[in-house]
Amino acid sequence: QVQLVESGGGLVQPGRSLSLSCAASGIIFSIFDMGWYRQAPGKQRELVAAISSGGSTNYADSVKGRFTISRDNAKNTVYLQMNNLNPEDTAVYYCNAKFRLREDWGRGTQVTVSA
Known about the structure:
This protein is mainly beta. 0% of the residues lie in helices and 54% in strands. The mean pLDDT is 97.
């Protein structure tokens, strides 16, 4: 059974940092492309950052230079380091795993950026 469990969300002030983790089980983690998506109230879910099985990364324009995605295949975990957060980053952040036609989602973790 596939499980993607996000952690690290919370309330943070603008300009501060937060680090998210997603621990995967039930998959051969190293062959999956991993990603972080987010969904703010009233908005569609959007890609924040992705990292391929080979380590290539891509980012949404809105987070380039502020967020960093990384993975540790030995720990079956993908990370999202978020720096210089602003209120527009407030959303539920979801972990995503893709391999060919297969796609799995975590349940999400809330990130709230507010003074």
